[in-house]
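User: Predict the structure for this protein chain, please.
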Amino acid sequence: MAAPPPPPAPPAPLAPPTRPKRPAPSGPDDAATRLQRWYRAVARRRSFMVIVNRARRRRKFLEERRRVAQRVCSAEAAIEEIRERLAMPSGHRLVGKWQEASKAEAATQVQSRWRSVRAKKKLVKLVGEQRYQEAIRKIQVFIRRRRQRQQQSPLVRTAVENPFWRPIQEERVRAIENSIVEKRKQWSSVTGRGLSTEQLKMQATAEYERFQQGVGRWHYDVWQTLLERAQAQRIIEAMEGRSFSNPPPYGVCSAYLLREAGEKHQGRKQSVSQARDLGDTKDVGMGQSVYVESQTEEQEANELLFALESKLGYNFSLPEV
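Assistant: Here is the predicted structure, written as structure tokens:
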């Protein structure tokens, strides 16, 4: 049996094109010819650059000459206009007004140019600051997302800790089976409360169906309890030893605290509106501020006052003599 043909070799990579090398001169005549050609090429390039530089200098000279001519022409036109104004009655006043108007126009042009330059500088600075702030926000978002990905969610942790969502172990199933068998052996007509076998079967079936209907809710309640415990523990750990210099970490909050703060705010607004309706805040708007406690804050203050009174043994509500 003939051997299979070998696989085709992969194509060789294309080499970059190289400049072909010139052969060495065959003799002194060939070398002299090459030197002459090189010298002529260099001379042509030099002459071409001389022409280009001469044209550039000529253009610069013509532009300067044109500017001078424009200045001279404008000066002559101004002189003619001044001469015509001087020929008029009270011409010196007209000339003075014309000069003031020209100076004001020049000053306006300079001011507009300076304002445009300053506005451009401010725009460049503002754009740079906006880009800087945008970069800071992007970095913050990246760090927060990375920290959230690295930090395990309380939902996941409590779901893992939930015993009802773990796989059933064989040892536990065997133990439950043994307990059921033992209870079955201990059954008698006395423990059956005078019920027949069919009635006991129906009762057991009904109890089992009731258990199946509520087992999902029971599992969810256990998971919710574990979740609330984890959240409370996390908030307690976050709030311990916190101050203005050591703020709470990012992503830690409590719905209860938010609800309590909202209730305090609503109570304060109602108290302020009631005080305004009753006319107790007649000095508001005259540079004086009014502070009204909400009901929750008042209760907290009363509890603190009662605690101090119980510790000190003195009633602060008594009138001073």
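Residues 31-87 form one domain.
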